[in-house]
Amino acid sequence: MRYVSAFFLGGLISLITITNPVSKIPLFLALARDMDATKRNEQARKACIYALVILTVSLFAGVLVLQTFGISQGALRIAGGLTVMTVGYRMLFEDPEPPRSPS
Fold first, then answer.
1. pTM
2. Is residue 11 predicted with pLDDT exceeding 90?
3. Would you give the DSSP letter of residue 97?
4. pLDDT for residue 20 is more than 70
5. Residue 67: what are its φ and ψ, rounded to 5°?
6. Which of 16, 84, 97, 103 minimizes the number of CB atoms within 10 Å of its CB?
7. Residue from 44, 10, 54, 50 nearest 24 by CA
8. Cβ proximity of 38 and 54 under 8 Å
């Protein structure tokens, strides 16, 4: 049980960090500016339900895809770390001139 609660807490913190809900508040308020309070609450409730459904489906579909291709969680972490490292390296040492497309 202790392992499950630690896994849930870690996943929740990761999810909150990735989705960054605090940054979405001004956007929602700007889009719902002309709505009355009941309509705004209804839209917020629908958005939360839709987000929950999308995240849940993505969770199970992602697990299914990883299991189908035989990718372990450790391998996924390593690949994600290498991807972040590559993007960071390119941001740090980027060429001043963008590459030209062949004409």
1. 0.63
2. no
3. S
4. yes
5. -70, -35
6. 103
7. 44
8. no
Q: Answer left, alpha or beta for residue 101, where phi above 0 means left and psi between -120 and 50 means alpha.
A: beta
Range of the domain at 73: 36-94
* Amino acid 21: pLDDT: 86
* Distance spanning both ends of the chain, measured CA to CA: 61
Instruction: Quote the CA–CA distance of 20 and 32 in Å, as a whole number.
Output: 19
22 lies in a domain?
yes
- Asked whether the beta carbons of 32 and 40 are under 8 A apart, the reply is yes
Answer yes or no: do 4 and 48 share one domain. Answer: no
Give the residue-averaged pLDDT of 86-91.
Answer: 91
Cβ–Cβ under 8 Å, residues 32 and 42: no
Question: And the tokens for 9?
Answer: 């807490």
Q: Report the candidate in 32, 53, 50 with the shortest Cα–Cα distance to residue 41.
A: 32
pLDDT digits (tens, 9 = 90+) for 26-59: 999 999 999 999 999 999 999 999 988 998 898 8
